[in-house]
Each structure stands twice: as C-alpha cells, then as structure tokens.
Records
---
Amino acid sequence: MKGLISKNNAPQYEWGGNCLSWVLNDTPGLSVKQELMPAGAREQLHYHKHANQFFYVLSGVATFYIEDKVIQVGTHEGIHIKSSQKHLVVNESTGPIEFLVISQPSTHNDRIQV
C-alpha cells in the first residue's frame, strides 16, 4: 500500500504556460490530477479517443466548451465528458480555479488537438 498523496508531495508539472497540475494517481487504467488555472487561462480544443473524463471543481467557476454547448461548473459541481467529445476548459473568471480531472483510462497518448 502506498502512502497518502496530496498537492504537497505529488509530482507536479506546468501546462498551457501558466497552469499547474499535480498527479495524484497515474496508472494505465486511471488518472487523477488536481489542476490550477489562473484567471484568463484556457486550454486548446481537443478530444480523447478512449478516455472518459470527470471534472470536479474544488473552487471557482470553470467554463467548459463541449461540442456545441457552453456549461459553467461551479464549486463542488462536476461534469462528465465522454470519449470522442471535443472539449476545452476556460477560466473566464477574475480569480483562479482549482479542479480534479479523473480520466479512465489514462489520457497518455490519447489527446487529439482539433
């Protein structure tokens, strides 16, 4: 059994130039990351051939563009994104947002930019 994991001891990386991700679990079948996006940050439109994803907002309001829909997800709310759905997340607020990204299976080599 592994020890406890948190932002304090998890592997961390930067993405999108100014966003942070902490890898809480990383196996071929399941990925769990905690991410921080500053105000105005956005990712690029993409999809995953195999991975389903569940985003759970810990703080702030995240704006998701999923196919032709725009959905705002607030603190303590979550949204499921199915494999092959084109999507991106944007922080359109004036403060940072923090959320969990749970992917099954892992998104390693499964991200296709649109």
Note: DSSP finds no helices and eleven strands in the chain.
---
Amino acid sequence: MSRTGLEEDLRTVEVPVRAERRSRRHAADPARPDRLRLLDGLRLLAALTVLAYHFTARDSYAWGQRPSRLFPGLSQVTQYGNLGVNLFFIISGFVILMTAWGRPVDKFATSRITRLFPAYWAGVLLTGGLLLLVRPEGGLHGWEAITNLTMAQSALDVDHVDGVYWTLWVELRFYLLIGLLLAVGLTRRRVIGLIVFWPMLAALVHTTDQAFLSSLLIWNYAPYFAAGMALFLIYREGASVFHWLLVAYNWAIIVGLTGRYFPSGVDKKTHHQASLWVTLIVITVSILLVAACTSRVARRVQWRWLTTAGALTYPLYLLHEHWGWFFISHIRHWVSPVVTLVVVTAACLLMAWLIHRWVERPLAPRLKTWVARGLADARS
C-alpha cells in the first residue's frame, strides 16, 4: 500500500506480482513493473473526451450559443466524447476484478469507500455551492445536495448535483455484484461464469420489463464490465483463444445492444446525428486500447507523469462540467473560443490537482482507518 492509500484501483493500478499462472507458458515475468501506467494515462484520456463533449458538443449556457455553431467541425468529432464513459466501464471491469481478487469482502468495501468518497464529497460541496450560491437559476435545492452526499440519489429518484454522477451509480451496482461474488467465494470458474452469463441474463431480464432486476444487473453496461474482466484474465493468466473468445462474446453483445437501442434522428443536446458505425468503431477501439495498455509491452512503460495524470482523472471528471461551463461563460467575452477552451481545461485540471493534493491525500488514509475499524468491530 502506498503512503496515501490511494494507489490501488482506478487511480494507480497496483498489479499482483505473485499472481498464479495456469501454465508454465504463462509464467510471471519477475522483472515486470508493478504499475500499469499506460492505463492511468488512458483513464485521463477518457475523462478529457468527456470534457470535450461537454465543452464543445453539448448544449449549455456557457458559450451563449450552440457549440455546434461555434465549433461546427470539432463538434462533429467531440459528439462521440461521451463514449469515454464506456471506456471507463471497460477499465473498471479490469481494475475492480484485479482489486477484488484474493481479498475478503471487508477489505474490498474499504478500498472502494476510500477510493470514491473523499473527492466525491468535495465535488458535491463545490459544485453544489456553485449552483446554490452563484447560479441559483440552475434549480438545485439544498436538500438535493445533501442527498447527493450519499451517492445513492438515483435510488431515491433525486436529481444529481452534476449530471456525470449517474455513472457512479452504475459503478456502485457493479461493486455490489463483485462484493456478492467475494461473499460466496471468488474463483476463476465463477468469474468466467459471471463474464458469460451476467450480460446475457441482464439483457434478457430487461426484455421482460423487470425494472428492479434489470437495474440491479446493469443491463445496458454489463458487457462493458465483463469485457474488462475478460481482459484481466488475459493479463493475469496470459492470452489464449478462450480468453479472447470471452472478450469477443461481450463485444458482440455490446454491438447488439448498441444497434438495437441506437437513437434515431438528431440528438437534442448536440444537434448532430451520430453514426452507428462510428460509435461501434469507437467502442471497439476502446476495448483494444485497454488490451494494449495492459499488455506485456505496455508494462515496460514507466513514465511517472502518467500516474500523476491518472491521479487527476477522478476529480477532473467530477468537477469539469458545471465549473467548466461557469468559467467559459466568463472568459469567452475576452479571448477567442480556442484560447477559452485551453484556459478552462487548464483551470479544471488545476482544480482536480488541488482536490487530489488537499482532500484525497489527507482524508483517504483517515477514512480508510475509520471504515476498516468499523467493519472489524462489526465482524467481531
């Protein structure tokens, strides 16, 4: 464990050096590095694509006009930036399985709480303060901001302080499923069973209009997590035809779900008609990028700045939307749109670093101690 307690999981990926290998052909390389730094960089890239979507493609008050008119060519590309969320889910399937493997449920729960909540609380307070005190026309109520501190507002049908928080509810349900798997015993056979049957069962339940079960099973994003889990098996045990068939199987389900539910007509938020084939290509490339960033060759890349980039990803993702729009609305009158984009992106990155440095680093170790102690007392 690092001195901050944060360098496991989605931020800085710790890899199990002593992972079992199923055959001598897939024996571990004792010289391999302990961090997948390229995966950290890929996470920041995913966050920046979502940022580009919000700043240059999606409608908001920020520019005083439609971004599609201000950036007609760029917005045609960045309209696909929201697919950075899909990339996050693939990465999460890989990383969360790696984090959970060989751990008891309480250790897994502690790592998730420690990982998610410090920056999230800061994001709710900062964005909530902006919308309540500076931009009350946003319609946020104080009781909604308080409810958002639980991260369970979706379960209560309460609006999000920031629209991007919906993805955290998806992540929480995935953590719950992994926690249940840990409770019954996480084994290779059961992981493979989850990879194969979960996406298919979730989609089937959705077609029967069982809202609770389809929501619990994350019917529309299950194959993304499952594909990431299959990629972790490749990383852990070595590539094989069987492992790649698991990836291809979930990719095919993703293609089916995307094609079946792909929206027709012009998107009301971007005023563009997205292409199904471009969407499928972006998703396919996303899966291949995760595979590439976790390959044996990628493990040799040990640029430390990538870990720093990964550390900024989560707070950047939490803060950029409303604060970015607010900054744009005040800066756009003085400089060109391109300069505005650069300055506002830099400002959001600075805010992310400040949260990482002054909130996550000091609070996460304390929170970990409190949660671990509480769970230990409950267990005893």
Note: The first helix runs from residue 37 to 56.
---
Amino acid sequence: MLVLVWPASWVLYIPIALVEAAVARRHLGLSWRRALKVATAANLVSTLVGIPLTWGVGVLAESFIGPVLPFPIHPSSTTSQVIESIVMAPWLGSNVESWMVTLAALSLCVPFFFVSVWAEYLVANWLLHDIEEAGVKGWAWRANGASYGAIAVLLAGLLGWALSS
C-alpha cells in the first residue's frame, strides 16, 4: 500500500498545506506567510517521515497479527475481504479487488492521522516558540482533522463508487 499511499500524499501535499495554513491562520492568528511556512514544514516532516514510519510499524504489526487471526468465514466471502482489507491494510497482497485497496487506504487514514498530529505538533511547536503550546497542539488536531476529514470523504466516495461498479 505504501507504493499507492505515499505518492498520493505528495499529490495532496500542496492542497493539504494550504488547508492547514488556513487553520493556523484562523486558530493561531498567524499571518498567511507564517502560517504557510509552518504548515509546509510540518507537512513535509509528516509526509517524509510519518507516513513511511507508520506504514512500517503497520507491516510489522500485521506480520504478527495476521497469521493468528481467526477467519471463521470462507476466505472468499465479502465479510472476510472487508476484515482483511482493514487488518491487513499496510500490505494487502496481490489478489485484491479495487474496493479492497480503497478500504485499506481509508483504514490507514486512522494511524496516519494520529502520527501526523504528533509530528506536525512537534515541528510547529519548534517553529512557533512564541505561541502557547496548547494552542499549537490544538492547531495540529484541528488542521489534521480538516485535512484527513477531506481525505476520508474522498476515499469513502471512491469506495462507494467502486462498490457500485
């Protein structure tokens, strides 16, 4: 999945930085220039380090969890495919349908969100040493809530489209 998710994160990099800069401007009262600098730097670290690191931890967890998961349902059943798409999201394998890839990407948004909040908070807190830490933390949660919320809506739409096709 990293081969699909990471390039997509770079395609979305500029729109996400703009959205998160708008949140920084509103929430922290920053100028556009400063808000864009913070959002751009924070998202650079989040995309360069956070996504691959989170994916790697997910693959490691999957290698321990996957083999012991009881799949009492027939392996080709839809329920089993849904469970597999969510639990095995970091490394789906080769025999998957397009909707399973979309569902896996949607489920990966959860750990990516939390790592992004943490990474972007650290970067922003370092850059915004003159702003109260609680405000910076609030920005990280709100900004990532806005960007990951939009990504989740987009992926849910794609999932719906893939399932109806």
Note: The CA atoms of residues 36 and 82 lie 38 Å apart.
---
Amino acid sequence: MAVAAALAIIGAGFGVSAAEAGTGTISGTAFQDLNRNGVLDSGEPRIPNQQFYLFDGTQTVYYGTTVADGSGRYSFGGLDAASYVVSLEDSAWRAIRTDWVPSTTGSLRPDRAVDLSGAATADFGWRPIVRSTTLGNPISQYAAPNGMRVESYDDVVTAREVYDRVMLGLVGPEAPAVKIHFDLGSGGDTATTSASIGSDGRYELYGADVYASYLSWLDSGDSKLAHEYGHAWSLYHAYITQQDPTFASYLEARDLTGDARLNTSHAWSPREMIAEDYRQLFGSATARAASQENNAILPAASVPGLRRFLHDTFTTAPAGTAPEPAPSAMAVSGMAVNPSPVRSSGVVSWSASGPARVTVTVLNAKGATVRTLLAGVSEPAGTASVAWDRLTDAGRRVGKGTFTARVVATDGSGATATQSVSFSVA
C-alpha cells in the first residue's frame, strides 16, 4: 500500500484507511556539522524550520512534505517498508549551498536515500566550505601527465576530479597550454586565451585559462566546464593548427559562411558556436545533454560531417604548413630550504626552466599562508633564491614546527609550474 501518513501531511483523502497505513518512520535533524564528522554532536547548532520532501527511491513519486521544528527535527510517519529519498526543499538549499555542503548525504546534493524497515534516522548535516581566493594558492592542484594544470580553490571538488571530467572530452596538443581554475572568486564560467605573432608572421606561444564555477557544477555538472574547455581547444587549433582565428574553415563546415547574423549576438559568435559544438560532440554524457544556446542553427550532431571535420580536419594543419609545436610546460625544480632546520632565518632556493613571474610563500602545517616572500616578481631562467627571516606577514616570529615553502612560476604564455618542499623550524 502507498505511504498513507506521508500523504496525509499534504492533505487528507487518497482512499487510504488508518488500518492500511504503514508503521515505519523516517526522522532526523538538520544541523551545522562544524567538526565535519557527519554526526550530530553536542553543541553543534541546529537548523530550524527547514522544509523536507519525501519521494520514492527513484525520486519519481512524490509522497509528501514536512517542516522541521525549532530544534531542527523533522519526521515522516506511517510508512511502508520500502526505499525512499528525503530531500531538502530547493529554495532552502539554494540559500545555503554557496557556503555549506552536505556532510551526511554522500554527495553534493541535499538528498538522503533511505531503505526503510521499521524506523530510520536521516540527519542532514552541513559543513562549511573552505575556500582560497588567492590566485596561485589553491586548496588542491593537479599537474597532469599531458601537461595540463588544474587548480581547485575549494575543499569540496578536488583538482583531480575536475581534470577527470575534462578528460571525458576531446583533449589533444593544447593540454600543456591550458590551466583550469575551479571556484576561483565570483567570475563565473569563462575562458581567456592568448597567442603571439612570431617573427615569421605565424601565431605562437598559445595559452589558455579556463575558469569554472562551483554553482554551475552543482546545477549542470560539467556542461559549462566542457563549453569553456571547448574555447581552449578550438582556439588552440584556430591559432596554432589552422593559423586562422577567424574560424573560416569551421564556418564553411557549418554552412554559415557569409551569414549576416554572425557576430550580431553572443549566440552568433563563431567562438561560442564552436565551443557549443565541442560540448555537444565531444563532452561527457552530462555535457552533451545540455540544450544548445543558438536554437536558430542545427544541433551539432545533425550537421553532416561536422564531427569528422572537427575531430580530423580542424586538428590537422592545412597542406603545405606545419603546426606550431605545443608549448613546453613550465618547470620548477631543485626546491630547497637552508639551513635545516631553520632557526633565526633561512633561504628558499629553486630553479626555473625559463623566465617567469614568481610567487614564493611559506605555509604552516594546515596549509595556511604564513608569509609571502615574493608576489609575481619577474625572475630569469635558472637558479634563484629569497631569504626568510622567520616572521609572518604580520611581523610575528613563528614557533617551532613543520612548514612548507611553495614556488609558483608563470611564464609569458601563461604556463604555470608549482613545486613545494617541507622543512622544519627549531
């Protein structure tokens, strides 16, 4: 029999008698999980008056709703033994999701799956999100074997997770020139690219920075990320492979050459259209499923030969030309702190593979910045060093313990390399 008591929460009727109602209950408490252990502990603040929905295990059948009391407690009663999902009401989730993430649901979503037999507890704990807002000082980072660099500026989605999503798409020789920044500030989803013209008149020194937002990740998975990476991919091949940033060959393949609507709006920008085509043709299943921005043109999959053109022709240099080699990844090596241990002062040294803007920081055992020794200072290739006087940025002397020196070097094309070394202070 259906879930009589849960249905009764939103209105009587439904032809269910009291004798037919189930006896199971699902209850729980909404709370701030300040120690991040997924358990409601003494002293942790309760979250009152939040609204919860009850669905079947597939979240296709809606059974009812209830509102937590002043102590954050909610309950659904009169339930049959079955699989259910309890969900926080959407507006309540959106009010807190920028700064809080579930610690009890097993995902980023405010949904708890419950296999009920008798009584079950389904608490909703929320932990604060830790973020960095300083470019070059991410919470996590990943230097991929293909040369791509990824930084995540929150402790919810790791840099490696972001990279793995990107790799579900088409990635090629542009990878060493691309750096991805996840959840950095409030800039939203965007991509910036650059290329120089060499002495021979050819485009060279390509670089791309892709910015992906946390809220887009929550709302649409990696669809926005795939679109922005489509910019990095397509512009690399436009500049470096085709040596033609007008996208002339692409517009011909899409039968849009000379169309008067081109560049009249965001949706009609060739750069936006090819990034959308990349997402639709080469992105993950989630990315491909998102709707197309420009509804006046055929979906990418419906354009005869477009996938083959982008996959093969667009990524191959035209006859009689040679593509510019992919940029070498910036490298930092030989990191050291001397003397060891540091007592009154020390020297951080490193070697960079080329000229670069260098930032050097000292971090404590928790990863927080203690002192910024250099901030975007231009340094030549080779060995360099900077002294540390054992003081914080506030001028206080640090105590004994384990610290980390970090060097971030960014060359003229935007390629960035990071290396760190741990050391002790006595």
Note: Residues 1-20 have pLDDT under 50 and may be disordered.
